[in-house]
Amino acid sequence: MIRVQQLEKSFGKNEVLKKLNLHIPEGGIYAVLGPNGSGKTTLIKCILGMVIPDDGQIEVDGISVDQSWKYRKSITYMPQISQFPGNLRLRELLSMIKDLRGASSSEQELIDILGLKPFLNKKMANLSGGTRQKVNIVLALMFDCPILILDEPTTGLDPGSMIKLKNLLKQERDKGKTILVTSHIMSFVEEVADEIIYLLEGVIYFKGTIEDLKIRTDQSNVEHAIASITQSQSTIHV
Q1: Which CATH superfamily is domain 2-232 in?
Q2: Residues 6 or more apart from 146 whose CB is under 8 A from it?
Q3: Of 49, 139, 154, 184, which has fewest CB within 10 angstroms of its CB?
């Protein structure tokens, strides 16, 4: 469970998060959406402890994130862009991450599902962008953490790999895990998300199911519903 209360963050004169309140219960896939600059990445990094808010409170499973770093052990984070050491072979990278994490892992099944076995002895610098993104997915899902935070996980994936990712996320959700995911691909969001959290200018304008979003905006299409919120800039209360 993640609880955010009155969260504020500014960078210079730019107010990114404005007294933001959010409650994410245990279990489910939550899509965090919004245009560029809406505060999505800042919110995620505040939850992860990578950005220190100016004011407000964040709790993960009842533990305040500013009191202990240990809560991070319950979270796996997949950044939008990962920088891997180019001289490492994929096999070596996986081994290194396992050693750093110091936890049991189940990467072999993921390697098989995503077709990465032929690349295990190849250097990361020689892998295509799509293949590196599959590596990202393996690293995010190989540890049994109750909370997954994935920033644009579909970037660079071919249609077949995107289907596999959808199935993997649903399997993790069915295990009772809480998954936060950002994406600009609305078809992906519509298929996997249990709820949408829509940010605009540092404020949550909507939180609820896709069906509820369509009803409230009087739109039958998710993209049109999102566009309707953005254009109107009239708050739909959480």
Answers
A1: P-loop containing nucleotide triphosphate hydrolases (3.40.50.300)
A2: 26, 61, 74, 176, 177, 178
A3: 184
CA-CA distance, 47 to 44, in Å (whole number)? 5
pLDDT tens digit string along 90-100? 999 999 999 98
In b/e form, how buried is each residue of 194-224, taking b as 16+ CB within 10 angstroms? ebbbbbbebbbbbbbebeebbeebebeebee
Distant-in-sequence, close-in-space partners of 125: CB < 8 Å, separation ≥ 6: 86, 87
Q: Are 222 and 214 within 8 A, CB to CB? A: yes
Q: What is the DSSP letter of 121?
A: T
pLDDT tens digits for 125-155? 999 999 999 999 999 999 999 999 999 999 9
